[in-house]
Amino acid sequence: MYNFVFVGTEAQAGDEIGLDLYPNPSTGIITLRTASPLFKPVSIEVTDMHGVALNHFNFSNILSEVQMDLQGLSAGVYILKVTTSKGVEKIRLVIVR
Question: What angle do CA 24, 83, 53 make, to 5 degrees?
């Protein structure tokens, strides 16, 4: 039996969130950069490939970039679900040790 996880954007048509995650792969400290300021609340949920929530971050806004510490995660593949007023974007993150 195979489990498939589809990763992509769910942003509304015409509303580009414009996110960049680096470094990816990472050892745990990651930076999320936005193409333009996000003045409304931003929620970031980190899940494993089975959809189990492992971490959650809330920001009142992101002007250009934010750093997150995920050094407590084991090596593997994770999904960052970024929810903004412009929509939802899912980004694959690889943690290496």
Answer: 70
pLDDT, tens digit, 9 for 90 and up, residues 2-51: 444 444 444 433 346 899 999 999 999 999 999 999 999 999 999 999 99
Name the CA radius of gyration of the chain, rounded: 13
The answer to whether 26 and 42 are in contact (CB under 8 A) is: no
Q: How many angstroms separate the CA atoms of 35 and 39, rounded?
A: 12
How long is the chain? 97
- Segment 16-30, tens digit of pLDDT: 689 999 999 999 999
d(CA 89, CA 72): 23
Q: What share of the chain is helix, strand, coil (3-state, %, to 5)?
A: 0, 55, 45
Conformational region of residue 18, where left means phi above 0, alpha means psi within -120 to 50, and beta covers everything else: left
